[in-house]
Design a protein that fits this description.
single chain, alpha/beta, Rossmann fold, 3 domains, five-stranded mixed β-sheet, 19 helices, 15 strands, about 15% strand
């Protein structure tokens, strides 16, 4: 056992994960790797956004295949144990595990960084194969070749976070090519390679010209169907975890549906929707819904991409923040240089990093956890122009609505209409909805805002659920070439008010009012109209707080 060769770390780390009450068994992925061993297709690279379980799966791969002295039969209760090839692979391979996100103490340059890996593997090989005449001055690939020539042994490589080196501050531009050549010489066309399992956030083509690492088959979340179900949690898996959660806690502070709103919404290439796994596990562990994934990358990370071409993307932001999808081609980023300027490159990068999700030619914001960060962006960056100016008026819009001040509401909407944005042409209710959403953006600090929610007998444009029991509940219905009275009539006729009834969290009741808000726009007169009507007061106890 060594630091890299047949290390105990993957086994022990995966065992720790399996002991978590919210562990999800993804071990059937291992069976999909078996056919590639000792074949021409023995190079596999799986890329996913951060916090989507890449390291957990890499540890599982190392723990399953690597030789170990552990005796607790870790995999016997997992799904992979039913596979016919289970015993022929379990702990039968020599595994070299490298976590490229790790660096030596006080590392100041690439030479120190890569020397730690090279020297560590050499030391492990000398200890494991003392009769193979391995010398300190040997390259790692020459040392591995000596072992193969003397013993016929092949090695399985598990390489985690292969792209981490490119984000380290001491890595220079010329070091990137050196690193790619290191991987090429270590892995490509080497007889001692049995299989290579590699993970990262960025596709290989993002940094490589293709020739260095063109032996890899790459699998990303947006365009590759294989391995789709093994990263992220499915609805059925979260159902199971929530059932465990309900048994563990005395009082659940959120519903199963709220867990979906916060963390679901990522799409795979198969069209399957996935939850962010880290956020789900932490929410269940803490019994609290909050921004777990995005807390490590604030809205500045979003702006890093958006700022490269604000003119082309800000109208799209208006639509996406209102819950709409935007058509785009996301193939540009992975095949291009380091530069990110075009709209397509920006969205491709944001999909790769998990800041957007992609389905059938469209990108969208997947869930509330990320939507909150986009809200912060729109309220905080004046370089976004009209988007920022409208967002800043949203607090005034909310107060005017609660006060029934329709004159101020109309003035704000007219201000929105008089901006330069082509999205404000109001060709349909979708565009009106996008702008109205922007005008109520700051309401999300006090409300859970849901779009096109099933309510009563139909779908309503916006429902604003108050986070505090004494705030007003708000139902928004929008109309183009109609009247606000017609919008409120629809709210009444379709019983949208029922959406606030029958929901109970921690035995707290709504005590505010339910407001029906009708907003219309006439394409003939170019004018807005607004009406606010109190539908019901919640003090009679008939309407419950949904948090």
């Amino acid at each position: 056992m060594g630091l890299y060769l047949n290390s105990k770390t993957p086994y022990d780390m995966f065992k720790k994960i399996t002991g978590n009450p919210y562990f999800v068994d993804k071990s059937l992925l291992l069976a999909e790797l078996f056919p590639s061993f000792d074949s021409i297709n023995c190079y596999c690279c799986i890329t996913r956004p951060r916090r989507f379980g890449k390291t957990t799966v890499a540890n599982m791969v190392g723990a399953f295949f690597g030789k170990t002295d552990r005796k607790d039969r870790l995999f016997d209760d997992l799904a992979i144990s039913e596979n016919l090839e289970y015993k022929s692979h379990l702990n039968r391979h020599d595994v070299i595990s490298i976590d490229f996100s790790r660096a030596p103490k006080g590392c100041k340059n690439y030479e120190q960084y890569i020397a730690r890996i090279e020297n560590g593997i050499l030391e492990d090989l000398v200890a494991a194969y003392p009769d193979c005449d391995i010398r300190q001055e040997d390259s790692v690939w020459d040392a591995l070749q000596k072992v193969y020539e003397h013993t016929d042994k092949r090695f399985l490589f598990v390489l985690d976070e292969w792209d981490a080196v490119f984000h380290m501050p001491f890595i220079l531009k010329e070091n990137r090519q050196e690193y790619l050549l290191f991987l090429k010489w270590l892995l490509k066309d080497q007889s001692y390679v049995e299989f290579v399992y590699m993970t990262g956030v960025l596709p290989i083509a993002k940094y490589s010209s293709g020739s260095e690492l063109n032996m890899f088959t790459e699998y990303d979340m947006a365009t590759s169907e294989k391995f789709s179900e093994y990263f992220g949690f499915s609805d059925a898996e979260v159902d199971h975890l929530y059932h465990i959660f309900e048994k563990k806690v005395e009082i659940s502070k959120f519903s199963r549906d709220e867990l979906r709103v916060w963390y679901d919404g990522y799409y795979t290439a198969t069209g399957m929707k996935l939850y962010n796994p880290r956020s789900v596990v932490l929410a269940l562990t803490d019994n609290q819904l909050r921004n777990y994934w995005t807390s490590s990358g604030p809205y500045d990370e979003l702006f890093y991409y958006v700022q490269n071409n604000i003119e082309e993307v800000r109208d799209d932001l208006v639509l996406m923040v209102s819950g709409e999808r935007v058509s785009t081609d996301i193939g540009q980023f992975s095949a291009s240089s380091m530069e990110i300027h075009s709209r397509e490159q920006i969205y491709s990068a944001m999909v790769i990093y998990g800041l957007l999700t992609y389905i059938r030619g469209e990108v969208l914001i997947p869930n509330k956890e990320l939507m909150d960060k986009y809200n912060e962006l729109l309220l905080s960056r004046d370089s976004l122009g009209y988007v920022y100016r409208l967002a800043r008026k949203s607090e005034q819009m909310l107060q005017a609505t609660i006060a029934g001040d329709t004159k101020t509401m109309v003035e704000i909407l007219q201000f929105a209409h008089n901006t330069e944005s082509p999205v404000l042409l109001y060709n349909n209710e979708v565009e009106l909805s996008a702008v109205v959403n922007l005008c109520y953006l700051s309401a999300r600090n006090k409300y859970l805002v849901e779009r096109e929610d099933k309510a009563g007998k139909g779908f309503v444009d916006f429902i604003l659920y108050p986070k505090h029991r004494d705030d007003d509940c708000i139902i928004l219905e929008l109309k183009v070439d109609s009247t606000p009275e017609e919008a409120i009539r629809q709210i009444k006729d379709k019983d949208y008010i029922l959406r606030f009834k029958g929901k109970l969290v921690e035995e707290r009741l709504y005590t505010g009012r339910i407001l029906a808000v009708g907003i219309s726009y006439s394409r003939q007169t170019k004018e807005h109209s607004c009406k606010v009507e109190i539908l019901e007061n919640c003090l009679d106890g008939s309407v419950y707080l949904s948090d």
